[in-house]
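Project outcomes to date are best conveyed with an example. Our students and postdoctoral researchers have been running inverse folding experiments weekly, and each run begins with a structure described purely in tokens. The record below, which covers 509 residues, was selected by the lab manager from last quarter's runs and is presented without edits.
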């Protein structure tokens, strides 16, 4: 019996997807189920852990109805990173999971920065920030002490799903390290960071390499998803790391750039060299590390724009097959280099590396009577890209890694205008892959390797990922952008940062 189908599962912030691939990386079928995001208080963002399982099981059960189940070789798991849930001794959630989007732990982050920021960064590869799990566990200790004392395990999303599928308490290095509690050079939980948080090693699942079979489907899980018992379930990695290999980023010189809710770029490195310019984490390739940049307000900022200024366009798009983004793209494409412009700094969700400034806010300059929402929409796309170029420069300065080309991923990569802007501002070729679902594909690659369809992860990536189209920089556009970037963009936020932070403190409670 031929077993040549792989299922990649991506349990993300908004939905859980199950995508079926063959061993050549050909898309076969897909299903998804939404996951609610709950905000009981300002700055809180939570999800019931049961929803991770229910949405995943529903998506998987739906998609396997469309294929020959006897051909399934393995299931690979990837997921939203940094999100975690505390479990009791019966492995039941004690509360909602706290997601990476949650920003309640400002006080704890500032304390960590002042007392041991550099030390935490050197061990975990992550300077103290609002997205990692460590400060939120510290928040639980201070604000929910009874729950903190009763917690038996702290589990990331990937580990939780692996447990529900197989009954085994494991998670992978690249799934756990974004939590900010792993010594990523030694591939183990950090005793020093755990001491700071007041937790114990036995409160965490065992760590395994990506591409490890965590176990077979239990009878209970098999019944829930409509599959035979025993199908191998494979520990993958966080969504960013899986997207990286799904895009074919398996060596130095190439970066994946995911234009998603957050804009995340990942550069592969053979050396561990932490720095404040980026976040370092374990790669899904053996003996590799990922230097990752983050712009928290990515397509989230695009969605904000449509909600704030494009409701009429959204209403029209709801009655047709054309999206609001496509309408706005046509409008923004009419704004040419040399026309009156707006310049935007995209700190809609604060500034990550290298500033790590939770008080930073978005900035727009250049307003006049000549401006329209088309100018502002284009400025959103350009501003995010200017910031990404800045992050690439900082990453090169600290790590020494040269960047030769970029593979675009995520919903924003579907925009021809944004593709062109990225190529022109970054000044290097921008590739469009054969699928934008690189996260699920990366999980499927690890599953294919785990069950012996390929000799190693690099071999799986070579055979399962392809480039469909390439955008090369337009030098006239590039020269125009570089003047703005060098003379204004790079200097703007540093010059007014103190005033921006003060304004934020004065206008927020």
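After processing, the design step wrote out the following sequence:
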């Amino acid at each position: 019996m031929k077993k040549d189908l792989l299922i990649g599962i991506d349990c993300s912030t908004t939905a859980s997807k199950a995508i079926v691939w063959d061993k050549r990386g050909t898309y076969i079928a897909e299903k998804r189920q939404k996951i609610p995001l709950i905000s009981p208080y300002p700055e809180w963002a939570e999800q019931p852990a049961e929803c991770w399982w229910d949405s995943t099981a529903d998506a998987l059960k739906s998609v396997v109805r469309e294929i020959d189940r006897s051909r399934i070789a393995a299931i690979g798991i990837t997921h939203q990173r940094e999100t975690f849930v505390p479990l009791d001794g019966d492995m039941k959630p004690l509360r909602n999971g706290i997601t990476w989007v949650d920003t309640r732990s400002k006080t704890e982050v500032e304390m960590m920065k002042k007392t041991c920021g550099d030390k935490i960064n050197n061990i975990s590869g992550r300077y103290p920030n609002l997205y990692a799990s460590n400060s939120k566990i510290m928040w639980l200790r201070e604000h929910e002490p009874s729950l903190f004392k009763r917690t038996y395990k702290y589990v990331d999303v990937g580990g939780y799903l692996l447990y529900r599928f197989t009954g085994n308490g494991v998670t992978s290095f690249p799934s756990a390290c974004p939590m900010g509690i792993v010594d990523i050079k030694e591939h183990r939980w950090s005793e020093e960071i755990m001491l700071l948080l007041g937790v114990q090693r036995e409160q965490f699942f065992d760590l395994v390499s990506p591409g490890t079979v965590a176990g077979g489907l239990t009878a209970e899980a098999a019944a829930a998803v409509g599959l035979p018992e025993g199908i191998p379930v494979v520990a993958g990695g966080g969504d960013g790391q899986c997207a990286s290999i799904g895009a074919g980023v398996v060596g130095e010189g190439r970066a994946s750039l995911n234009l998603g809710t957050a804009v995340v770029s990942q550069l592969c490195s053979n050396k561990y060299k932490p720095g404040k310019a980026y976040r370092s984490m374990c790669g899904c390739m053996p003996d590799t590390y990922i230097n990752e940049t983050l712009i928290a307000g990515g397509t989230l900022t695009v969605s904000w724009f449509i909600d704030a200024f494009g409701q009429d366009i959204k209403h029209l798009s709801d009655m047709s097959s054309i999206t609001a983004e496509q309408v706005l793209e046509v409008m923004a494409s009419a704004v040419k280099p040399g026309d009156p412009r707006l310049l935007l700094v995209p700190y809609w969700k604060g500034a990550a590396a290298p500033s790590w400034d939770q008080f930073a806010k978005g900035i727009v300059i250049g307003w006049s009577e000549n401006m329209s929402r088309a100018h502002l929409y284009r400025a959103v796309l350009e501003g995010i890209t200017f910031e990404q170029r800045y992050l690439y420069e900082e990453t090169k300065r600290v790590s020494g890694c040269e960047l030769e080309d970029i593979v675009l991923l995520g919903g924003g990569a579907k925009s021809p205008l944004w593709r062109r802007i990225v190529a022109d501002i970054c000044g290097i070729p921008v590739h469009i892959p054969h699928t934008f679902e690189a996260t699920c594909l990366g999980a499927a690659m690890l599953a294919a390797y785990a069950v012996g369809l390929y000799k190693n992860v690099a071999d799986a990536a070579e055979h399962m990922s392809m480039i469909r189209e390439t955008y090369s920089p337009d030098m006239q556009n590039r020269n125009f952008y570089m003047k703005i970037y060098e003379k204004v963009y790079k200097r703007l936020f540093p010059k007014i940062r103190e005033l921006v932070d003060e304004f934020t403190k004065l206008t927020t409670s």
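The chain has a mean pLDDT of 95. The longest strand covers residues 15-22. The training component of this project remains on track.
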